[in-house]
């Protein structure tokens, strides 16, 4: 029987898009399956120019934006494609977390392929699907238990919770007949659940891995400051202290830890925290679950309100939050007592809100990867037009380069494969052989 191999069908010299295939004899297991944030994707699809819903895989295959793997896709998704439908040849898919670049292509996968994921990730996927246009398809959903192995033929997968900028993230220890691979997924060591990452790395070191598959988002040029969540809180407190006007801000809509941080900062500054309808729906859906112990809930938690921006039609999931929702006039008149979160798509509300000049805008998201980031330019145009002061206060969801290198030195794998990075060649830990992987090439899990 040939030895176990790992093949990278995405995440190669790009941010996101991880598609990691582990094979051991007849057994084939895929880890993550989402679109990348690569410049190549933007060469063909942008904003409302997207693959056709009637032939998504065909359109993505045209530009090599999705892997040509037989026995992976559903018959429906393959409509019109030059890749013929075959019965499933992938025996399981494991998700690390619910971010779109890791889970966004699930809807194209054959519905008979089981998907293994954490319970909090499943809750988030259900919530995202219910309140937006993203679909994940119909699959056998198998919920993971931390530390409990899942055997797929010759392959045994052990899930371990890690800290990331979305709850419920997992890293994996993958045992094969040729040795053990460790797949980090996206993770960090400076967040509010840092102890989870520490335990994962301890378990990984105990395995003596022959292969380390690690994200490397922040390897290479990195404009981000290495804030912890507590540092973000301290800096937000500083901005709020003594501010006489409305405070505005934005963060990733599913970064529940950040939402909690900003809510608590607002309360301690004697301000009410005001969120969008979609954020209100998310908080209500996840509250009370074990992975979300401190989530504030609209209608139940003090000093938490919903902003009801005017629309021609409201979705059913929005309707429960409309009663008592604040409007622009109320926010404008009571701004000194409010901290309003605005997603970028809601920026036209600024025209009605008319915040006082020099009002603070807390930008609690990653800085753009390049100066050509069009979204960042549009954001800046809005802030300048309304004379708002931008405060960039963000704790990254990813380890810094020194942290990643220290991890690799600690685990001492035979081979290290940096993915989810545009700069794999900058990953040079001592004591490990670094392989800058090529897309579609099968590498041995064990050996030299």
The level-1 CATH class of the largest domain: Alpha Beta
- Percentage beta strand: 15-25%
Q: What is the CATH topology descriptor of the largest domain?
A: Metallo-beta-lactamase, Chain A
> Helical element count?
12
Unreliable residue stretches:
none
**Adjacency order of strands in the biggest sheet:** 6-5-4-3-2-1-20
Provide the gyration radius in Å: 22 Å
The overall number of domains is 2
**SSE-based structural type:** alpha/beta
Give the overall silhouette: globular
Largest sheet: 7 strands, mixed
Mean pLDDT: 92
Give the number of DSSP strands: 20
Q: Output the CATH homologous superfamily of the largest domain.
A: Ribonuclease Z/Hydroxyacylglutathione hydrolase-like
Compute the separation of the termini in Å. 18 Å
Question: What's the helical proportion of residues?
Answer: 10-25%
CATH architecture of the largest domain: 4-Layer Sandwich
Per-chain topology:
Layout lengths: L4 E4 L11 E5 L2 E5 L7 H6 L11 H7 L29 E3 L5 H4 L11 E3 L1 H12 L10 E3 L6 E3 L2 E7 L8 E7 L2 E5 L10 H14 L3 E5 L13 H12 L6 E5 L4 H13 L3 E4 L1 H10 L17 E3 L21 H6 L4 E4 L8 H4 L6 E5 L9 H12 L3 E4 L8 H11 L3 E5 L13 E2 L7 E3 L4
Parallel strand pairs: 3-4, 4-5, 5-6, 10-11, 11-18, 12-15, 12-16, 13-14, 13-15, 16-17, 18-19
Antiparallel strand pairs: 1-2, 1-20, 2-3, 7-8, 8-9, 9-10
Helix pairs in contact: 4-8, 6-7
